[in-house]
């Protein structure tokens, strides 16, 4: 009889695969939405991967956006030194780096602390936390390497790119989906429903 995959093995698998997907899609954004590799003469994959982590501030070398579905969806290279919706763009680089490093380390510590308490059979929550962890680390890797995050996915109103959702990336998507799963987790409502009963039972014992 095969033993079920342990929760830590599942987390390692999810984290590795999703972090690799996030970094690979950002590499593709640099490769296909900028001309930096052509300018740098980087031809081999090793040269381009090295350039991906060492070249900085590539927006002047970006190409025209690539339209996946012209009415609503395009790929556009954007560097975001702040948070979602451009928050903290106006602060100094030192403040942003210190703030985002602190937030990222605290988030990873909280996720691992919460994950450690999960039972082996709580797969839904394990997957949700795995998504959030991979997304948080994915953007943190960007900040360590470049001091900004690479965004490239743009959704906008029908044929109106000027009315659009803030540009985002795969790591942002993982965080949003993971947090949504945690919020919508049916177990949280059951726990909330059980809480008054537990309080009543405790009061009766007193």
UniProtKB/TrEMBL annotation:
Compartments in which it is found: Cell inner membrane
The membrane topology term of the UniProt record is: Multi-pass membrane protein
Question: So where does this one cross the membrane?
Answer: 94-115, 127-145, 165-184
At the top level of its lineage, which domain of life is listed? Bacteria
**UniProt catalytic activity:** Release of signal peptides from bacterial membrane prolipoproteins. Hydrolyzes -Xaa-Yaa-Zaa-|-(S,diacylglyceryl)Cys-, in which Xaa is hydrophobic (preferably Leu), and Yaa (Ala or Ser) and Zaa (Gly or Ala) have small, neutral side chains
GO BP terms, alphabetized: proteolysis
Q: Which residues form the signal peptide?
A: 1-20
Alphabetized GO MF terms: aspartic-type endopeptidase activity
Instruction: Give the CC-aspect GO terms.
Output: plasma membrane
Q: Where is the active site?
A: 151, 172
E.C. number, please?
A: 3.4.23.36
Pathway info: Protein modification; lipoprotein biosynthesis (signal peptide cleavage)
- What UniProt keywords apply to this chain's record, in alphabetical order? Aspartyl protease, Cell inner membrane, Cell membrane, Hydrolase, Membrane, Protease, Signal, Transmembrane, Transmembrane helix
Q: What is its main location?
A: membrane
Q: Which NCBIfam families match?
A: lspA, PRK14773.1
Family label = Belongs to the peptidase A8 family.
Role this protein plays: This protein specifically catalyzes the removal of signal peptides from prolipoproteins.
Give the protein name, as stated in the record.
Answer: Lipoprotein signal peptidase
Organism of derivation:
Anaeromyxobacter dehalogenans (strain 2CP-C)
- Quote the gene name from the UniProt entry: lspA
